[in-house]
Automatic annotation (TrEMBL):
Keyword Isomerase: no
Keywords, ordered alphabetically: Membrane, Transmembrane, Transmembrane helix
Gene3D superfamilies hit by this protein: Hydantoin permease (1.10.4160.10)
One GO cellular component term: membrane
UniProt protein name: NCS1 family transporter
Family that this chain belongs to: Belongs to the purine-cytosine permease (2.A.39) family.
Membrane topology: Multi-pass membrane protein
Leader sequence residues: none
Compartments where located: Membrane
InterPro entries: Pur-cyt_permease, Uracil/uridine/allantoin_perm
Residue ranges crossing the lipid bilayer per the database entry: 31-51, 57-77, 113-135, 141-158, 165-186, 206-226, 238-264, 284-304, 325-342, 354-374, 395-413, 419-437
UniProt keyword Cell inner membrane present: no
Length: 444
């Protein structure tokens, strides 16, 4: 019989592994703050910009709130296996996709993370460059981008020990900064906003539900690999409380950033957050503080959400050590050409990007949830999940077929792709696993 890898008795900074995690380093407050600080995505600003002209201010607010609560439920569901057994996403996926088959969900999860990593690093570097230009007259965005990226790589190699303290310390500053930016936006553009956004009729139909998916879609990647984080949370928190922690930690930042992007784009027509806040804040010291907060927020988001997932994928597929994989992920972010993503006409492109990759992420999410709750009945055999020659070797064709079915359904309803993919993918996987003989060994 294969033997489950030895549970780690302790965890020094940077010593992450794919083995079941016994030492949990995040309590409830720490876990809440980690998600809070890790969800300040400038991409949310772009998503807010993309629904201008479609929704009014009230509809945009409700759409963001609904998206966040759906996220909370989804994170609690798919993070249950990682929370109970201490296993990361790539190990969790072996039961559904097989050892070789996990390369598909791994790739689907890693690519968007690296793209957002590069995008948010460029935003952070732009904020630092604006501070440097204003205070010292030194204007060199490329220099700050390279420097900023290597700084994040250095922080990332510390693993979850570094992430925990970075997120916990930074969360209060992030909240204060976002509240001030929201206030400054309303003060500067209040007249235009009251004239347009509150009186606009908007839509409560398909465009509204499409907007909920846009704000949800930014986090659909994290819904996939939430076990990478839930395995670090100390045991003793029920499913209901976990759902609340997820939803309420994500809601404030998403609401602030989405509405700021929505309102400022309506008033100015620009989707570049650096230019937005340069125009919105008249006081130079406050502007410098705001820009520094923007830069800091990119660090807290990247190290949690955009470094860990592709790092674990590289560790699983190529058997790399954590630090080596982390460095490689940081270098790959240079190749995403983030300077193209912050152009004034990029909001629509980012919207299409979110809709497209959500079409791939939704089916995989549905398959993992169905596999854990309906096929495995919340009981996993860890020995088999770590045995490359055991019943989960190779590829589970049922998961691949279900993924394709979900993708087709999602692309058929691209504006709500994530929602549309769930039932077709989940139902197909369940039926194949229950009634198709080639799936027999994967049911063990």
């Amino acid at each position: 019989m294969p033997v489950t890898p030895e549970l780690s008795a302790g965890k020094a900074p940077g010593e992450e592994s794919l083995a079941p995690q016994q030492t949990r380093i995040m309590g409830r407050a720490s876990y809440f703050l980690a998600w809070f600080g890790g969800c300040v995505s400038i991409g949310t600003f772009a998503m807010g910009s993309s629904v201008v002209g479609t929704l009014n201010l009230i509809q945009a607010t409700v759409a963001i709130a609904i998206g966040c609560f759906v996220i909370g439920i989804a994170l609690a569901l798919n993070g249950a296996a990682g929370y109970k057994y201490g296993i990361p996403f790539m190990v969790q996926a072996r039961g559904a996709f097989g050892f070789a088959g996990t390369r598909l969900p791994g790739l689907v999860r890693a690519v968007p993370a690296i793209v957002w990593y590069g995008f948010q690093s460029w935003i952070g570097a732009g904020a630092l460059n604006m501070v440097s230009t204003t205070l010292f007259g030194f204007d060199n965005l490329i220099f700050y981008f390279i420097t900023f990226q290597f700084l994040q790589i250095g922080l990332s190699v510390m693993g979850f020990q570094g992430i925990k303290w970075l997120e916990n310390v930074g969360s209060a500053f992030i909240l204060a900064s976002l509240a001030y930016m929201f206030y400054a936006t309303v003060q500067r553009y209040g007249d235009e906003l009251s004239a347009n956004l509150l009186t606009m009729e908007g839509s409560w139909g398909l465009p509204f539900w499409g907007a909920t998916m846009l704000f949800l879609g930014i986090y659909s990647t994290m819904m996939l690999n939430v076990s990478d984080y839930s395995r670090e949370h100390k045991k003793g928190t029920g499913a209901g409380l976990l759902t609340t922690i997820y939803a309420m930690s994500i809601l404030p930042c998403t609401l602030f950033m989405g509405l700021i992007g929505f309102m400022v784009s309506e008033a100015t027509g620009t989707a570049d957050p650096i230019q937005v806040f340069t125009n919105a804040v008249d006081n130079t010291p406050l502007l410098m503080a705001t820009l520094l907060f923007i830069a800091f927020a990119q660090v807290t988001t990247n190290v949690l959400n955009n470094v860990v997932p592709p790092t674990y994928v590289l560790m699983d597929v190529f058997k790399m050590k954590f630090r080596t994989a982390t460095i490689l992920v940081g270098l790959l972010a240079f190749a995403t050409f983030p300077w193209k993503l912050v152009q004034p006409d990029s909001a629509a492109g980012l919207q299409l990007f979110v809709q497209t990759y959500s079409a791939f992420l939704g089916p995989i999410f549905a398959i993992l949830v169905v596999d854990y709750f309906l096929i495995r009945r919340r009981t996993l055999d860890l020995d088999k999940l770590y045995d490359e020659n055991g019943p989960y070797r190779g590829v589970n064709v049922a998961a691949l077929i279900a993924t394709v079915v979900g993708i087709v359904a999602a692309l058929s309803f691209s504006s709500v792709s994530w929602y549309a993919s769930l039932i077709p993918a989940g139902a197909t996987y369940y039926l194949l696993m229950k009634h198709w003989a080639p799936c027999q060994r994967f049911r063990q």
